[in-house]
Model the fold of this input.
Amino acid sequence: MQSRIILLTACLGFLLATAGAAWAESGNVSLILGAKTLNEDDWSTNDDQFEVGIEADFKVSGLPCNLVLGLSGSGADNTFTTYENGYLNSVSDEVTTSEIRFGLKQIWKAGPTLRGFLAGGPAIIAASEEFRYNDGYTHIYTYGYRDYYYVEQYEGLSISDDGVALGAWAATGLYWTFENNLNLGFSIGYSVGRVKLFNTKVDAGGGHFGLLLGFGF
Done:
């Protein structure tokens, strides 16, 4: 799952950087790797997720701030067992979220090579969750002082749902610019966006922390 998120985000980021660099006066493109923390009450053990994102900002003549566009994806999975009517069932719970962010980004010099930034705006936030019952089941028979275990495999069952909502985001951070316009730093932020999954409203946004590696143009 994580490899698919990285590949998709990298492809979209490459297209974004190529298109933006053609008309902007200057800007930055950054790959962000880190973590996303969701509301534990909504997501239980899948609240801490691996996240990868790409962000690009563009300086446009006449605007006091840079325009910014970002894409990110996160995911986590967990396996647990349930016991119902004498059966032990193994259940896989997989959650993914994605965000498309728009807005403005103010960048200022904090030193000869150090830069600080503050950004924010609207976001399109999506989430999906899938439960898979695909590990077979164990029926426990008890006779006298001994337990007999009978295992039978069956074709996996799954249920899933997804949702999307309009939300908002904000982020700040620092980065250092080295030779050849190489940028290295970190970003922290927060996003909100309530989506409907399995007839229940949950917050698909959360806290974000990541290391950024990119370049200026």
